[in-house]
Amino acid sequence: MTTTDGRISLPLLPPNHPLGRSSITCEYRCGNACSHEAPNTTDNAYFGDVVRSIVSRRGMLKAGAVLAVAGAGVAGMAGTAAAHPDHGGHGGRPPRGPKGLDFTAVAPNREDRITTPEGYHNSVVIRWGDPVLPGAPAFDFDKQTAAAQAKQFGFNNDFCGLVPFGHDRWLMVSNHEYTTESAMFKGFSQANPTEEQVKIGWAAHGLSVVVVERDRRSGKLLPKLDRRYNRRITVTSEFQVDGPAAGSQYLRTTADPSGRKVFGTLNNCAGGVTPWGTILSGEENFNQYFANAGSVTEPVAKARLSRYGLAGAASTRKWENFDPRFDVAKEPNEVNRFGWIVEVDPLEPGSKPVKHTALGRFKHEGATIQIARNGKVVAYLGDDERFDYIYKFVSKERYRPGDRAHNKKLLAEGTLYVAQFTGDSPATEFDGTGKLPTDGEFDGSGKWIPLASGDKSFVDGFTAEEVYVFTRLAADKVGATKMDRPEDIQPNPVNGRIYAALTNNTDRGKPGKEGPTEINPRNGNKHGHILEWAESKGDHTALTFSWKLLLVCGDPTTTDTYFGGYDKTQVSPISCPDNVAFDRHGNLWISTDGNALGSNDGLFVVPVEGRYRGYLKQFLTVPLGAETCGPVIEDDFILVSVQHPGELDGASADNPLTHWPDGGTAQPRPAVAVIWKSGCRIGE
Ligand code: FEO
Ligand code: CA
Ligand code: CA
Ligand code: CA
């Protein structure tokens, strides 16, 4: 059924996989993380439940009174708005709609192209194999070489960031999260990849830095073959390790007895642009690249590997066949050199990228920076795994405007915290169905629990070095809150609150797993939710905060969804939020990964203030099998990463199921796309 503004009922088609992702994506992107036991097997309880059981045992206090302690920011958070959007018809002047949302929502669909609202255009900026460095050969799918790939745009671009670089000119930095060899090589044998195929895979990972220019006449964003600034970073590029765990015994290897020099970065997912013009990038599912963790029997080492999802024999890509550092049995510490936030300075092309140990080691989704009122720098960090945690880092030193050399050291020293969330409604009101509690909000308070600061550990039984290198195990000890896969986290530059995408967790409520809580209220959470919090007194270095769920995603016609209190008949369906960004009005933009409602993935926008809070509209969809990520929201154009187009069950280089972006019989190619409207700002 199609509604008047083009939205249609869901589901459209049965998804390919329980979460709308193809089995190929699961295998190559995260090493089938979802089909394995979630690595967090600790029994640290949800703090709301802990407090409530103490309260009921003592019979002294009402839970609400206890739980409101940290709630100073709640009153400052936007109220819900049940007001209906007025689409005219009152006979007079049409009332003003929400700023930046003046477009007709795109309908969910399964089209093999980018679909946008009427009046918008899109084009490819750069795609896998396009030249980045001078001398790069033209892409030839059937004659790929590692040497060529090292000069070309890598595979499966995820995060995309723009660093201003002159008028209508930017340094565009893209993460190349992972490779899908079966889509890259015809006749590919996963059991026996060739050495050249493996080396192409190494060169197709990492990051690309590309100068891009806006052509005002056409609206397109065009890549430039800039000799000085264009750059490729791959699995063999040298990184420097900084922070309190640099040189740690756990980071030393045969090739690097110093523990300070790492080759390469892996599975770079989301990221952020810092106020000093560098790029932060999260090393996420790094575990899948390492073989033979299952051969480790020493209990402490085994537990440390297992908590990071390392347990098996051969790896998916068999890199261990060509470089022993990817074999845990041969080089046990190499794996500890991944799982960090890395910082790349695109403005200094010769600079060595850095791995920041002060920000902890886990499956980092990304990192985004907020400068606190006192000048300290705060990084918000998510660990993307079922039942894993949200972290923040507060720098020791203060930001100095214009002093890049100083600012680039800010992430080397500070305090690392993990979040503990408490609900304010009785636990009995959460039965896993997603039903709203009687106070009408999924909300509560929370605190930041310190893990380590410089050389000082706050976790019993852990040295500071162990907190940084085995952060997940340290956080387990202090009662961190188990979340439904924390993805991108971003502070809103307009209202100062922080927004996190919790993409899904189909294990919630399963036997032996944590059940529903106010902050993760649905069992078998297929569609995910969006969390919003306000640091106490608006101080980003605060140790307490208040929180609300802004969205509980899914089909708005079902009772288990929530759209900020907004009229659900007016909103677009959304599933599996992943990346978040903001426009100049402070509207939240959300891209999705793995739509479990059957539509292609897309990009959405939702106001977070006033009467339109929760009025979610879909802005675009990406082609079949692709995920939308890396959104960059500029005033007059948007960039999206179209990651893994055509990655559908049964697809391969021998049987491509889509041909985006080149059409005809071409192989699909991951790409960055630009969307714009001639003569208009986005959403106006
Ligand atoms: Fe690579 Fe958490 O998404
Ligand atoms: Ca509540
Ligand atoms: Ca992501
Ligand atoms: Ca993703």
TrEMBL record:
Q: Which InterPro entries match?
A: PhoX, TAT_signal
SUPFAM superfamilies, from UniProt?
Answer: YWTD domain
Q: Which domain of life is it from?
A: Bacteria
Q: Where is the composition biased (Basic and acidic residues)?
A: 507-516
Region annotation (Disordered) maps to 81-101, 503-525
PANTHER family per UniProt = DUF839 DOMAIN-CONTAINING PROTEIN, SLR8030 PROTEIN
**Name the record gives this protein:** Phosphatase
- Organism name: Actinokineospora diospyrosa
